[in-house]
Amino acid sequence: MHCPFCRHPDSRVIDSRTSDDGLSIRRRRQCPECGRRFSTTETASLTVIKRSGVVEPFSREKVMSGVRKACQGRPVTEADLAILAQRVEESVRSAGIAQFEANEIGLAILPHLRELDEVAYLRFASVYQAFESLSDFDSAIAELRAHPRTGSMPSIDEPASIQNPQE
Ligand SMILES: [Zn+2]
Asked: What does the cofactor field's note say (predicted)?
């Protein structure tokens, strides 16, 4: 790993720490040339196979732009979308698989979007679960009514605005 300060081609690891969720390792490094210190974060690479067959790295930004359309006109902020994308990444990483199909990412988005906004959830679900008729919407809505949101999401520091987006 090059030193980001002097471009020296080598660096020494002086400390390694696994993140709380166990999904990444943070290394503290020191450059033997200029002596400056810097950190690197190591995560397993996560790739997505698109319907076209193209493989690309997982991108939170892509998750956000996919969901943003479903959230048009809804009380959902960019910060909400960023948190949602982070949760989606955490849930796909915790599955322990390194490569996903784009459709699986869509399915991983659903439970998190449901927590955020039920109308956006229905819009998004109608695309990803390929709703074909009104009865598909009916059963999705019945499901929403039968299992109201619990608010018991994994503990991530989040702005107060996400707590009750409907109120
Ligand atoms: Zn250096």
From this structure: Binds 1 zinc ion.
For residues 77-83, average pLDDT: 96
DSSP three-state, residue 12: strand
Mean pLDDT throughout 74-81? 95
> What is the bridge-based pairing of β-strands 24-30 and 12-18?
antiparallel
Q: 19 C-alpha vs ligand 1 centroid, how far in Å?
A: 26
In sequence order, the 6+-apart residues with CB closer than 8 A to the CB of 100 are 46, 47, 48, 49, 58, 92, 108
Token readout for 19 is 């993140």
Ligand 1 center from residue 40 Cα (angstroms): 14
Rounded to two decimals, the pTM is 0.65
- What is the Å distance from ligand 1's center to 15 Cα? 17
Q: What is the per-residue DSSP string for 57-99? A: E--HHHHHHHHHHHTTTSS--HHHHHHHHHHHHHHHHHTT-SE
Q: How far apart are the first and last CA of the chain?
A: 49
CA of 30 to the centre of ligand 1 (A): 8
